[in-house]
Amino acid sequence: MRLVVDPRGVVRAVYAEDVDLAALGRPAIARASHVEPDAEGRWTADLSPCGGPTLGPFARRGEALEAEVAWLEANRLASPG
Fold it and tell me: Which of 7, 30, 39, 63 has CB 3.0 to 4.6 Å from 58, enough for a Cys bridge?
C-alpha cells in the first residue's frame, strides 16, 4: 500500500486494509472507480468518479483491478510537489 503525505500532512492512498488508516487521523474515503463486467464477461475499470478514463476491456477481473490501481497511483497519488 502506497501512502502519500502532502506538505500539510494530508495522507492519500488507494484503499486497502494493509494499514489501519484511522491510526493516521480521521479517514475520508471516497469511491474513485468501479470495476465491472460487461455483457460478454470482460472487465472494465471505470475511473470517471475521479475524472479518469475507462480502462479495458480485460479478460480477467484481476487484470482490470491491477490497471485500476496502476492508473490511480500514477494519476491520483502523484508525489506532492
Answer: 63
The structure's pTM equals 0.83
> In whole angstroms, what is the distance from residue 43 CA to residue 54 CA?
10
CA distance 2 to 69: 10
Q: Which residues share a beta bridge with 58? A: 43
Question: In degrees, to the nearest 5, what angle opens at C-alpha 74 toward C-alphas 72 and 76?
Answer: 50
Q: Residue 31 carries which DSSP code?
A: -
Looking at residue 1, the DSSP 8-state letter turns out to be -
Task: State the Cα–Cα distance between residues 10 and 58, nearest whole angstrom.
Answer: 34
Say if CB 47 and CB 53 are below 8 A apart: yes
- Nearest CA among 55, 69, 76, 71 for reference residue 16: 69
Backbone angles phi, psi at 36, to 5 degrees: -140, 155
